[in-house]
Amino acid sequence: MAQLAIKTFDxxxxxIDRAHLTRMTFGDAGLERxxxxxxxxxxxxxxxxxxxxxxxxxxTLAHTLKGSALGIGAQPVAAAAEAVEQAAAMPGREDxxxxxxxxxxxxxxxxxxxxxx
Length: 117
Fold this sequence. Notes:
The chain is mainly α. It is built from 5 helices and no strands.
């Protein structure tokens, strides 16, 4: 008898991999909150500096943000930051920065929800 494969579509994937974050903080909820708060502030600051920086600064700032995003499990931000890092010296880097800004906004929203809960 043939079986039908049923594919279910979930809501959009989480902007933060909570299992990864839990592993990185050894399950310490206080440390998790602290890292999320730190990332939230850092992302806002680095993004503002990228928008005002020269190519070299943009690349360095994007690299820093990529590492921080990977640390908390924010893969979409890390991927967008890597794209900015690669486009830092190119004419269209502003578009890459705006895509990064959108990903940061999504993660910051998720952080706010986590911290409120």
